[in-house]
Amino acid sequence: MDAAAPEPAQFTARVAELHRKSKSPNGMFGFEVTTCDGKLPHTVAWEESWAMFFGKLLRGVLKLDTEVKRSWPELEAATEEVIAGVIPRLLGILQADGRKSKPSLIHGDCWEGVLIDGCIDCSNVC
């Protein structure tokens, strides 16, 4: 395996293809198994709304942070404001008034160790 970073246009085209070809097995946002960043599990239970899913994901990250570190009331309050106000305005609108948002696979852990050229294969994404 070549450890060089991928060519940006080719890599982003592969990620876009992954998003286009992926299909949620139940039409909802989430994943059937717990996903992780390193050893930290994500909250990925199925949700019909992208805004609700993302809010739960963010709240789960804050919960993990609070468990590892100490409570930080200002961060907790700011996170709740984002979940209650910002996320519905930015993401909720995508599914408002009859609009649809297609659940797609995303890769949330893009760092140099996983950005090796050729690592994204979309040939058997369903």
Automatic annotation (TrEMBL):
Reactions that this protein is recorded to catalyse: N(6)-D-ribulosyl-L-lysyl-[protein] + ATP = N(6)-(3-O-phospho-D-ribulosyl)-L-lysyl-[protein] + ADP + H(+)
Enzyme Commission number(s) of this protein: 2.7.1.172
Signal peptide positions on this chain: none
InterPro entries: Fructo-/Ketosamine-3-kinase (IPR016477), Kinase-like_dom_sf (IPR011009)
Any Pfam family the entry gives: Fructosamin_kin
Name assigned to this protein: protein-ribulosamine 3-kinase
